[in-house]
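Hi, here's the filled form for the chain we discussed.

Project: internal
Contact: R.S.
Residues: 148
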Amino acid sequence: MTDTNRAIQSDDYSLVLKPLLEVSQVRHVVIASSDGMLVATSKDLPRDRAEGVAAMSSSVLSAIRATTNAALQPDPDNLLNNPIETITTITELGTCMMMPAGHNAFLVVIGDQDMPMGVVAGLAARQARKVGEKLMSVPARDAGSTPS
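And the returned structure, exactly as it came back:
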């Protein structure tokens, strides 16, 4: 089922995330900054819930990174870079897949239990790269200037 009316609330990201929302078992898509701030969300997820998903997902990513570092780092005094590729959680209510989108953001795809994991993982990885590129192309604000 393709539903193009489920576009992202932020027009800047609608074309980037639209392919994920076209998978019938995908319910919601959220883009968040690494500090848990909402960047964009699918239209049918209320903003307050999307902000909660962004904040909680950021905490989960940090907790998983800390867990794997604590358990797997060969030298705790000399930590290696340990980037997360994907975190997937399957519950009775559905499936949640999280992955980085550039250096300062991540993508969260939430769907039914029977969400086709291979299809969604491939699409999510491709779209996460586009989100990362899009975020990197936004010019930085000049901290020293004041608005005129």
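Let me know if anything looks off before we file it.
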